[in-house]
Structure formats: C-alpha cells, structure tokens
C-alpha cells in the first residue's frame, strides 16, 4: 500500500533561479530560493532523511501558489497572506516579526529598527534580523524588504543576489540606489 507523502513540493522557475515550494496538508511550510542545483540538493536531503516524506503530487494549494509566484515574478503584486501556512516550530517572536513584513508595501523598504519599533521595543533590531534569517517562506513573508538602517541591504537567507533581484523586481532597489546617490538613505517609518 503506497504511503501518502507528508510533504509535497512544486517547482517554479523564474529567470532569477529556481523556487522550491514545500507544503503539508495544513499549508505552505517552506520556500527555498536558489540556483537549480542547490534546490535539487535540498530536495534530495529531505528525501534521504525519510523517503516517504516528499512527493511531487500537486494539490490545489501548490497549484495556486505556483500561479501566484509566476504572477509575482512577472512583476505583478500578489497578496500571499491569503495562503495557509504551516509554520510549526516558530516562536511567537518570530511570527510577530514575519507578520510585520506584510505591513511593508510592495516596492518599499523598511529597516530592522523600524520592525523593532513596530514591536514596541526599539532595541531588538538584532533579534529582528535573527528572526528574519529564520523565515521559512521568503517572498511570502517579504523579509527582503527589510534593510539596514544605513541603507545597505543587510542579509538574506537565499543570498544578497536574490535579495537584490527581489527588490529590483518590485522597484525598491532602484529607489534605494537613488537614495544612496543623494546621501544617507532616508527610510520611511
């Protein structure tokens, strides 16, 4: 009797690289951005851990997410907040930080300090950065829109090339460069 996979996946291939979407029955669990060989290695790693966990059977959720990602990477705004998520293991602090990234408008950037102040604690910018580095669903929680107070990009789990590509796609990178040419960047918020 075949075992039903506990984790299903779908692949999206925008010009920037490859995106691996991993979902459980409860919702989207991970978004992995990278070059094709890196996403294949991650899928192999998951399959080796427990071969019955991963399956490519598509469901409505993954189909809808693939379509939404394709729209996003064609330069259109997408409301990813409508998709169910399975963020098991996330702390309350992490969830609050990730949720706040949804408040950052498409094409805009905010600082780690801004997120910290929105949480009511202006001194936790470093902790905000750590929470963002553990974001399991980049793009969905748009952590790429969070940059350093100085105007530098800061970190990004998938690498700065991806962060720059996402900001450029949304027009945020262009505004960031414009601010840098005019002197110290002025961040909204």
Overview of the molecule:
The protein has 189 residues and is an alpha/beta fold. 40% of the residues lie in helices and 13% in strands. The chain has helices at 36-49, 60-73, 92-101, 112-118, 125-133, 160-170, 172-181, and strands at 7-12, 18-23, 28-34, 54-55, 110-111, 146-147. A 4-stranded mixed sheet has the order 3-2-1-4, sandwiched between helices. Strand 1 (7-12) and strand 2 form a beta hairpin. Helix 4 packs across helix 5 (125-133). The chain is globular, with a radius of gyration of 17 Å. Mean pLDDT is 84; it is low at 178-189.
CATH hierarchy, class of the largest domain: Mainly Alpha
Fraction in helix = 25-40%
Average pLDDT metric: 84
**Strand order of the biggest β-sheet:** 3-2-1-4
**Number of continuous helical runs:** 7
Percent strand equals 5-15%
Write the topology of this structure.
Layout: E1 7-12, E2 18-23, E3 28-34, H1 36-49, E4 54-55, H2 60-73, H3 92-101, E5 110-111, H4 112-118, H5 125-133, E6 146-147, H6 160-170, H7 172-181
Helix pairs in contact: 4-5
């Amino acid at each position: 009797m075949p075992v039903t996979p506990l984790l299903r996946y779908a692949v999206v291939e925008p010009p920037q690289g490859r995106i691996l979407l991993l979902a459980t029955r409860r919702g989207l669990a991970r978004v992995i951005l990278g070059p094709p060989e890196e996403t294949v290695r991650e899928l192999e790693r998951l399959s080796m851990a427990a071969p019955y966990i991963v399956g490519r059977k598509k469901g409505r959720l993954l189909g809808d997410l693939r379509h939404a990602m394709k729209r996003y990477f064609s330069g259109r705004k997408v409301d990813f907040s409508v998709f169910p998520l399975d963020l098991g293991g996330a702390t309350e602090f992490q969830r609050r930080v990730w949720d706040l990234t949804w408040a950052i408008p498409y094409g805009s950037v905010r600082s780690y300090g801004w997120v910290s102040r929105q949480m009511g604690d202006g001194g936790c910018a470093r902790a905000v950065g750590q929470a963002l580095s553990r974001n399991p669903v980049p793009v969905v929680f748009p952590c790429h829109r969070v940059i350093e107070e100085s105007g530098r990009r800061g970190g990004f789990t998938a690498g700065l090339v991806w962060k720059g590509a996402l900001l450029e796609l949304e027009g945020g990178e262009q505004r960031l460069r414009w601010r840098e040419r005019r002197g110290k960047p002025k961040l909204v918020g």
